[in-house]
Amino acid sequence: GEALKKCHEIDRHFEEFQEDQFDFHAYCLRRGTLRTYCSMLNVEDTMRKHRFFARAAQTAIQCYIHLHDHPVTDEEAAKPDTGPAMSEQERKKMLSKQRKAAKKRQLEEQQKQQQQQQQEKKEPRDKDDGDRRSDQKAPLDPRQLARPSDPLAQASKFLSPLLALQSERINSHLLAYNLFSKKGKVLLMLRAIKNGLRLDANHPQLHCFLCDFAADVKDKMAQFAAPVQKVLSTELQAVLGGRDAQAYNEDFLKTHSKSLEHRRAGAWVMYKLNAGKQADSLRTVTCLEDSLTDRSVKMCADVLEDLERGLYGQCPDAIASYKDQCSKLFPRATYFSPPAPEENGEKPNDAEASTGATACATVT
């Protein structure tokens, strides 16, 4: 809820900035040149091309997709964030403080509303200000934002400016595919894949989307109308080069055999298409040979997270072995293994402690 509140506040900032430009149209026509006026109109049209809006929109889309998959229930909302390892007495004290703080905030909001109403009665507004200035937007409530009636519709509002103004960024098309897949819009999913391939045909995440889309369409082809079937079969044959998703993934792994990020994507596709190849997929993703060009703490941590989430199936032995490999490669990173116990009450020296903390900060 708080994250969505920040995203909506950023969106409102750009919206208010654009609305305020209406006051300068007449001024620009009187005082400025036509070239300057056209330049101002161009700025208004491309305002949401700013990187700050792109970051906020990406966060909002990801949050709404997560809320679509895992909606917030009343039981989860009732559970307070008590933190780690709190006693019953400490928990009661914290809950009491939270209730008092909530009542205090509610009283302050009521007082602010009363003061605003009194000021509006004492100070009549000028008619030239217009209803646009007098109307104030409703405050953003994190609890309501975390319980949208249609999360995908809210995500679409943030996606439209990205596709219109930031189509040169591949993340825009990756977000579009993820959103359209939740809606079941196969043709829009195909368009997002084709636009992504035009920008970066070797992107690992795009490769996962393409192979998953090709396999899913192949299984559900009979459910589509005849024109849709024709478009899908023609375009996928052109994109995959006449190969199926499994052969396409094998060629992808051969081409990017020295990249751990690409091998991570190819191993996931291998297991996704055929669960019987779990051993091969685990061997591909957990092999940390010296020839890899992107063998870093962060990349290894991402692979470990995928293993623990079960993206390659249940594999406790492979997880233990992979942690052992990573701890040997990065002995200072406590992410892969717990810190050594203190002997005789002595703490590790400052150099070792700072190095381990730096490695953990890089992962998080």
- How far apart, in Å, are the first and last alpha carbons? 21 Å
Rg calc: 27 Å
Percent of residues in helices = over 70%
Number of helix segments? 19
Listing every helix as H and every strand as E from the N terminus to the C terminus, the arrangement reads HHHHHHHHHHHHHHHHHHH
Strand count, sense and barrel status of the largest sheet are: none
Structural class, please? Answer: mainly alpha
Write structural notes for this entry:
By secondary structure, the chain is mainly alpha-helical. The chain is built from 19 helices and no strands. It has helices at 2-20, 25-31, 34-45, 51-69, 74-78, 88-122, 130-134, 142-145, 151-165, 170-183, 186-199, 204-220, 226-240, 245-255, 260-273, 278-286, 297-309, 316-329, 350-363. The chain is globular, with a radius of gyration of 27 Å. The two termini are 21 Å apart.
Structural key phrases:
mainly alpha, 364 residues, disordered C terminus
Concise description?
The chain has 364 residues and is an all-alpha fold. It contains 19 helices and no strands.
What layout of secondary structure does this protein have?
Blueprint: H1 2-20, H2 25-31, H3 34-45, H4 51-69, H5 74-78, H6 88-122, H7 130-134, H8 142-145, H9 151-165, H10 170-183, H11 186-199, H12 204-220, H13 226-240, H14 245-255, H15 260-273, H16 278-286, H17 297-309, H18 316-329, H19 350-363
Helix pairs in contact: 1-4, 4-9, 4-10, 9-10, 10-11, 11-12, 12-14, 12-15, 14-15, 15-16, 17-18
